[in-house]
């Protein structure tokens, strides 16, 4: 038996030996509902109802669903929400003019640009048009820089959602080993610094990482955000690890799956997030929380 097969066999055996372990499936939907109740109380203490403005360009079907979810959640909280649905042909200058108008509007607390954008628009340049104090997605260069140096008040929503989910089962992360598979501006890079701020020892992996499976098996905390359906299985997971699956892929039969083969996680991981129902609902909740936080800052409530 060669080394790789032996390692695989041992890993599978270890998983089977631990199969009596009851994996905690972290309910992101339930956590999001709890956050919503808290946000309603905070909104009731404000002098003015928060307003979220969403910029949606083109007719991407997935974007339409995401925008609808955000609009529905904001309205559920009693916030004002305006969706600016723009044609795919909009120019950079036209988009800049709209965002600058929203930046200057004192009644607007949060501005977010729904991704992806048409090819002729540079996403980094567009994101940096948004005022850092209204950047409820937490993705401007300024807010990412504040995260690196500490003291960021508006943090990227999906990484923030991951942290809440992790800390719901492991409140003290100090000294833990974390591996983040993915290095995007949206998830991987901000999450690296959030974990580091909690005194984790963090490794960032990506598509060019050698011996990825071996590296993943060292992780007490494993977060996968690649968009590659089912790339992580039992042989990539340390027994007793917390596994956060950020990926979401719609299959040809209409079903949704994540980056982790969830059927192989049960009995091996200490805790894991389902897809759907894990990171997704919490990401929307973090967007709402950022909007309320921005409104509090604008009204002098810190």
3D architecture notes:
With about 300 residues, the protein is of the alpha/beta class. Helices cover about 40% and strands about 15% of the residues. The chain has 10 helices and 11 strands. The chain has helices at about 5-15, 30-45, 60-75, 90-105, 125, 140-150, 155-165, 190-195, 210-215, 280-300; strands at about 25, 50-55, 80-85, 110-115, 175-180, 200-205, 220-225, 240-245, 250, 255, 270. Strand 2, helix 3 and strand 3 form a beta-alpha-beta unit. Helix 2 runs parallel beside helix 10 and helix 7 (about 155-165) crosses helix 8 (about 190-195). The model has no long low-confidence stretch (mean pLDDT about 90).
List keywords for this structure.
single chain, 302 residues, alpha/beta, 6-stranded parallel beta sheet, 3-stranded parallel beta sheet, 10 helices, 40% helix
Question: Runs with pLDDT <50, length 5+?
Answer: none
Helix content: 40-55%
Number of strands: 11
Order of helices and strands: HEHEHEHEHHHEHEHEEEEEH
Please give the radius of gyration in angstroms: 20 Å
Indicate the proportion of strand residues. 5-15%
- End-to-end C-alpha gap: 61 Å
What spatial order of strands do you see in the largest sheet? 1-11-8-7-5-6
Main sheet characteristics: 6 strands, parallel
